[in-house]
């Protein structure tokens, strides 16, 4: 065999061997993981003196899923008879009638808009413009504070205060919308003045656009926010959002001389004995229980060993405790006396430094 043929044979053998295999992209190129972006808009954000018969053009960085973009775009205040027209990566919004004169408008492109591969945008984009010579000056900003709810992309809704403390999202449309970023920060700008607003963080788990009490979470600022020419900015409007279905955390310690015994700590609902949360451990030491919101009785049990040594023993906390969703309660102590002695009652529980009332 010639040297050339030998080299070809060796190359073929290497390609057939697992050790020479190379990872290659699937047909069509590498997998798209980068979210699309808005490259340019006409008019640009914060433009003034925009003609009342002008539309809005949005240029995306890549081809988009048209249905998701349609659902992701909202205009405030809503213009009459809006229409969408695509030309490649460029989207044009037009209206059936001229816009109002000397008015500020906002176009929100939600971060839920996806490209043609199904990858969503990294965040929302807002385009504000005025048909007059200036934008409205009102601004509201703050941060969502949440333990278990996902803050990024949470919808922020602004309603007239006259709609009440819990507006019906199936009946009323928000005056303005925004979305929280990865840090939970949000901002409404170019808002009208001499208006009282109520603001809400809306966690739309069903993704149907309407609040469903048994599944979604709607957390609001407790009082109306009034913007005036003298006070056009309201910042630090920080909203605390709690998931009522999230568990609470109970923690503490088991103290005992029987270091090899098995222990169980349980929380039993005061009104439903079948609702029990239990954790077991080998030997004494710290424990953590996660329980739904409710009222619970706590106890720790030392399991009997082989031949009944050590014997079974139980320590109860004499009073029930009220537990709220996402609450963290600590300092529950259960002390077992050595075998043959009666266990003392545990000390009263104390709240951990990080817990909230």
Overview of this structure, please?
- With 357 residues, the protein is mainly beta.
- It has 3 domains: 35-134, Immunoglobulin-like (Sandwich); 136-243, Immunoglobulin-like (Sandwich), CATH 2.60.40; 248-336, Immunoglobulin-like, CATH 2.60.40.
- The protein is 6% helix and 39% strand.
- The chain contains 2 helices and 24 strands.
- Strands 9, 10, 12, 13 and 14 form a 5-stranded antiparallel beta sheet that branches. Strands 18, 19, 21, 22 and 23 form a 5-stranded antiparallel beta sheet that branches.
- β4 (83-87) and β5 (90-94) form a beta hairpin.
- The protein is elongated, with a radius of gyration of 30 Å.
- The chain starts with a helix and ends in a 21-residue tail after the last strand.
List keywords for this structure.
5-stranded antiparallel sheet, Immunoglobulin-like, 2 helices, mainly beta, 357 residues, 24 strands
- The total beta strand count reads 24
Give the C-level CATH assignment of the largest domain.
Mainly Beta
List the total number of helices: 2
Largest sheet: 5 strands, antiparallel
* Named CATH topology of the largest domain: Immunoglobulin-like
Q: What would CATH call the homologous superfamily of the largest domain?
A: Immunoglobulins
SSE arrangement, N to C: HEEHEEEEEEEEEEEEEEEEEEEEEE
Give the helix proportion (percent range).
under 10%
Indicate the low-confidence ranges by residue numbers. 11-23, 349-357
Instruction: Supply Rg.
Output: 30 Å
Q: Report, as a whole number of angstroms, the end-to-end distance.
A: 85 Å
Structural class: mainly beta
Average predicted local confidence, pLDDT? 87
Indicate the overall shape: elongated
CATH architecture of the largest domain: Sandwich
How many distinct domains? 3
Instruction: Give the strand content.
Output: 35-45%
């Amino acid at each position: 065999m010639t040297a050339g043929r030998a080299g070809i044979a060796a190359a073929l053998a290497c390609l057939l061997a697992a050790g020479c295999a190379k990872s290659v992209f699937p047909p069509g190129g590498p997998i798209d993981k980068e979210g699309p972006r808005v490259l340019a808009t006409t008019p640009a954000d914060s433009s003034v003196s925009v003609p009342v018969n002008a539309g809005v053009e949005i240029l995306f960085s890549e081809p988009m899923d048209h249905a998701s973009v349609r659902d992701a775009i909202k205009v405030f205040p809503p213009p009459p008879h809006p229409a969408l027209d695509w030309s490649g990566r460029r989207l044009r919004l037009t209206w059936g009638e001229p816009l109002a004169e000397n008015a500020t408008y906002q176009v929100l492109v939600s971060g839920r808009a996806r490209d043609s591969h199904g990858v969503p945008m990294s965040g929302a984009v807002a385009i504000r413009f005025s048909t007059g010579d200036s934008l409205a000056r009102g601004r509201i900003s703050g941060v969502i504070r949440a333990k278990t709810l996902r803050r990024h992309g949470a919808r922020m809704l602004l309603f007239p205060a006259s709609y009440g403390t819990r507006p019906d999202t199936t009946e009323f449309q928000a005056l303005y919308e925004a979305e929280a970023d990865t840090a939970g920060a949000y901002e409404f700008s170019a808002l009208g003045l001499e208006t009282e607003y109520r603001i809400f963080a809306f966690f739309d788990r069903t993704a149907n656009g309407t609040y469903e009490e048994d599944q979604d979470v709607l957390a609001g600022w407790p009082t109306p926010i009034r913007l005036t020419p003298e006070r056009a900015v309201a910042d630090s409007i920080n909203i605390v959002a709690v998931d009522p279905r999230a568990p609470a955390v109970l923690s503490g310690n088991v103290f005992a001389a029987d270091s090899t015994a098995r222990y169980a700590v349980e929380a039993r609902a005061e009104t439903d004995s079948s609702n029990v949360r239990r954790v077991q451990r080998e030997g004494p030491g710290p424990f953590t229980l996660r329980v739904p919101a409710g009222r619970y009785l706590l106890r720790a049990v030392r399991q009997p060993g082989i031949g009944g040594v050590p014997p079974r023993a139980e320590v109860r906390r004499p009073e029930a405790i009220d537990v709220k969703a996402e609450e963290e309660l600590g300092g529950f102590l259960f002390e077992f006396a050595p075998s043959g002695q009666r266990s003392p009652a545990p000390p009263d529980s104390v709240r951990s430094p990080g817990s909230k009332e």
